[in-house]
Every structure is written in C-alpha cells, then in structure tokens.
Amino acid sequence: MTAPAVILSRPQMGENIGSAARAMKNFGLSDLRLIAPQCEWPNDRAMILASGAGDIIEAARVYATAAQALADIRILFATTARGRDVLREILTPQAAAARLRAAEAEGLKTAILFGSERAGLDNDEMSLADAAITIPTSKFSSLNLGQSVLLLGYEWLKSADATPPVRTRKTQAVPSPRAELIGLFEHLERELDAAKFFYPPEKKEAMVRNIRAMILRSHLSDQETRTIRGMIVALAKNKWRGSPR
Fold first, then answer.
1. I need a labelling partner for 109 at 20 to 30 A (CA). Which of 34, 52, 156, 241 fits?
2. Which residues, in sequence order, are CB contacts of 124 under 8 Å at separation 6+?
3. DSSP assignment string, 155-210
C-alpha cells in the first residue's frame, strides 16, 4: 500500500515546506516532492519547522517541472480555493480521501498537488489533475500551505482510522473493598440525616438504596473512597459557618 505523494508547486518559503512535512508525518504521509522551489534548497528553516519530520525533508525530491514530478502518478487531485472557476469535478477533502483510499487498494500511485503560497496553481497545472479539492471555509478562504497539507493529511488518515468516536480512559485502580464502601455509606448517610436530607422520613429507605446504587456504579477505588469521605468531613466541619456572603 502506498500513501499519496504531497507535491508542492513553486513553494516560496522554507518554513511552509517544513510545516507541510510536519503535517505529513502526523498523518502517515512521507513522499514529499517539490516543483521548482522559489526558496533556497536545502533550507535550514524548513528543517527547523519540520520539528521531528526531518527525514521527510531530507528525502524530498526536487523537480524542475510538473511533468517530471507527476511522471509516475496515476491519480492526481489538485487543491484550489477557486472552486467556481474550475471546469472539472470538485471534491471535499473527505470525498477526495475516500477516492485516494480506493485507488490505493487497487495499487495505484496517487498524489495531491498544492500551489504556491502567493498564487496557488495555474491553469496548466490544474489541467493535469483528475479532480480538484476545495477545503470548505467561512468567508475568508485563504489557508497557509502547511494548514492545507494538514487538513488533507488528516482526512487521509481518518478515512481508514478505526478510533471510536467516544472513548473513556479505563482506570487501572483496584476497586475499593466492601468494608470501605460500607464505611462511606454510613458516614454519608449520618451527615445527610443531620442535614435533614431524607424527607419525607417514610422515603428514607428507598433514598438510601438509590444513593448506594449510584455510588456502586462508580466502581470507586480506595483513593476515591477516601477522597469522598474527606470531602464529607470538610463539609460537615464548615456547615455551622452559615452561607457565604
């Protein structure tokens, strides 16, 4: 399986190339290609901004023309902010990532082409692409080159990511012994009694059972049980001070 190449056409600043490389590293992309960079290359600022993705910078290939950089590419998508001016299919980043995944499954080499910071891609470069990608934005559509690479890289990784939408970190703590829990129940119930919480009195039994059930569902550890008892003690000590002003 081969991830898409990231091709930057006439990039002007080493910092943006470095930021793009860092974004690539975050999301599983490694094939960086530069078409006629307008900055000095190799570039120290690119290496600094890559911040951990120096291997991508070092392996980046430089080409004089788009035709050379795209020679082995079977499927090419080009990014543009001028969606209405493009006479071809326009994809969202999510749709583009899905198509790139499908092409990867067929063993096809793919790439995403990004234009220069100042002017984007010209019409000749756009004409080489199978489709255009436009990143939805609010009223201001200008994105930094590194930001654009990051957004497309994120969609690429997400298209095959199995991370559940919601996760809860599981505690490794051992559940509190029943004796500690019973001590907590009795302590809490004494203080609630003193505060006249159980009202009307005939409903006290049911209320106590419900409170105990809520606590048990939390699967408290020893430390958590001790912390709650400490909270009860602190509240009980201060209950005669009256309400805060």
1. 52
2. 66
3. HHHHTT----SS--PPP-PPBPPHHHHHHHHHHHHHHHHHTT-S-SGGGHHHHHHH
Tell me the CA distances in angstroms from 241 to 152, 230, 238, 245, one per residue in order.
59, 18, 6, 11
User: How far apart are the C-alpha atoms of 214 and 241, rounded to whole Å?
Assistant: 29
Q: Is 148 left (phi over 0), alpha (psi -120 to 50) or beta?
A: alpha
Whole-number pLDDT of residue 163: 86
- Residue owning tokens 């590419």: 73
Q: Where are the domains of the chain?
A: 5-158, 178-241
Residue pointed to by tokens 């990051």: 150
Residues in the chain, pLDDT under 70: 1, 82-87, 169-172, 239-245
Range 5-158: architecture per CATH: 3-Layer(aba) Sandwich (3.40)
Structure tokens at 110: 């793919």
Are 91 and 131 contacting, i.e. CB atoms less than 8 angstroms apart? Answer: yes
What pTM was computed for the model? Answer: 0.72
CB 15 within 8 A of CB 116: no
Which residues have C-beta within 8 Å of that of residue 83, sequence separation ≥ 6?
90, 132, 134
CA–CA gap between residue 66 and residue 164 (Å, rounded)? 39
Q: Do the Cβ atoms of 96 and 150 come closer than 8 Å?
A: no
Tokens for 171?
A: 């505690």
